[in-house]
């Protein structure tokens, strides 16, 4: 558990978004709750309700993301959560290789709220999302009403463009499960 501050990629800084933080909470039953706080909600472009269920290309607008990787060489999973209530889950064999849709035993529960300054998106996920995971990346694509997009992550790879699939973005180690 904890709160993690994301950093915008330096090549595409935000115009009016001050910060993006993620609160990570694991429940006793294994469920995971992620809560993204966006400071600057008045400037945030929030996709309208799109119906619940799977969607594609969610990262083309404001979208919150979780990447989970197993031991090196075993691939990774990408989860996208839109304020529109749409979500996506993909598996990869390696860096951007072998993308396929992943089934989820339970769909994520997505909700959001906003106040004067903050936009908060909450996503609750089944325990299977972290199964086999060793490291994770927490990310956000933030679109402002002016059309500007910024890309936020725990860490970014060197280079001129953001790339959440790069191993440098998988910056948070998961704790080993308790021994029986």
- How many helical stretches? 0
Determine the mean pLDDT.
Answer: 95
* Helix content class: under 10%
Q: What assembly state would you assign to the polypeptide chains in this entry? A: single chain
Major sheet attributes: 13 strands, mixed
Structure description:
- The protein is mainly β.
- Helix content is 0%, strand content 43%.
- Strands 1, 2, 3, 4, 5, 6, 7, 8, 9, 10, 11, 12 and 13 form a 13-stranded mixed sheet that branches.
- The two termini are 21 Å apart.
Task: Give me the secondary-structure topology.
Blueprint: E1 2-8, E2 19-26, E3 32-39, E4 53-54, E5 63-69, E6 76-81, E7 86-92, E8 100-101, E9 109-114, E10 118-125, E11 135-143, E12 149-153, E13 172-173
Parallel strand pairs: 4-7
Antiparallel strand pairs: 1-2, 1-12, 2-3, 3-10, 5-6, 5-11, 6-7, 7-8, 9-10, 11-12, 11-13
Spell out the key features of this protein.
180 residues, mainly beta, 13-stranded mixed beta sheet
Summarize the structure.
By secondary structure, the protein is an all-beta fold. It has strands at about 1-10, 20-25, 30-40, 55, 65-70, 75-80, 85-90, 100, 110-115, 120-125, 135-145, 150-155, 170-175.
């Amino acid at each position: 558990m904890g709160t993690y501050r994301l950093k915008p990629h330096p090549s595409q800084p935000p115009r009016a978004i001050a910060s993006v933080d993620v609160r990570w909470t694991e429940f006793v039953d294994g469920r995971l709750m992620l809560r993204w706080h966006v400071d600057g909600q008045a400037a945030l472009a929030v996709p309208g309700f799109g119906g619940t269920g799977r969607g594609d290309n969610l990262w083309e607008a404001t979208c919150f993301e979780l990447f989970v990787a197993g031991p090196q060489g075993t691939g990774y999973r990408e989860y996208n959560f839109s304020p529109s209530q749409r979500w996506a889950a993909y598996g990869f064999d390696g860096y951007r290789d072998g993308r396929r849709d992943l089934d989820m035993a339970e769909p994520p529960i997505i909700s959001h709220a906003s106040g004067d300054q903050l936009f908060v998106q909450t996503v609750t996920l089944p325990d299977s999302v972290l199964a086999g995971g060793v490291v994770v990346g927490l990310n956000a694509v933030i679109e402002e009403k002016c059309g500007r997009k910024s890309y936020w992550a725990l860490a970014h790879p060197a280079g001129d463009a953001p790339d959440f699939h790069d191993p440098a973005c998988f910056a948070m180690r998961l704790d080993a499960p308790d021994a029986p």
